[in-house]
Amino acid sequence: MPTTKKESIQFGFMMCFGMVFFMTIYNFYLNGMIGELTLIEGISDFLIGFAIAFILDLFIVGPNAKKIAFKLTAKTTNKVYRILSISICMVIGMAFFMSIYGLVTTYIHNGFTTSSILSDYLSVFGKNFMMALPLQIIIMGPLVRFLFVKYVKSTKVVSV
């Protein structure tokens, strides 16, 4: 897919935007915040989440997910296996870190509501992972790859 650093950043931007947009709405729904937040609060929560996710994608989760996925698929030439393994590794990593972010912001807004941070985290991670994996594999992954190839990917013109 992306072959240059610029293309990689553009692809990551598109993917993060879509995933964070839908996951933000999903988490607002789970926490009963739809109708409670103002439009400005919702947009600011989205923008903060997007900035954190994009930084994680560029510097921590993205590079490590690709290393792991390439090791797992080293003996295959099937692109579908590579794409799926990168997607799964990315979802695991992003759900791990973004669930920490979500739990921290929930605690900041609502305080501690249970006695176990670990059980709260595992609950948030499980809910986010269950939504993010199919969202990534079935909807956002194919959609972003299509849009990227159609509108962003540089095409080389060969003159005759």
TrEMBL record:
The chain crosses the membrane at residues 12-30, 42-62, 83-109, 129-148. Keywords: Membrane, Transmembrane, Transmembrane helix. InterPro entries: DUF2798. The keyword Transmembrane applies. It holds the Pfam family DUF2798. The keyword Transmembrane applies. This is DUF2798 domain-containing protein.
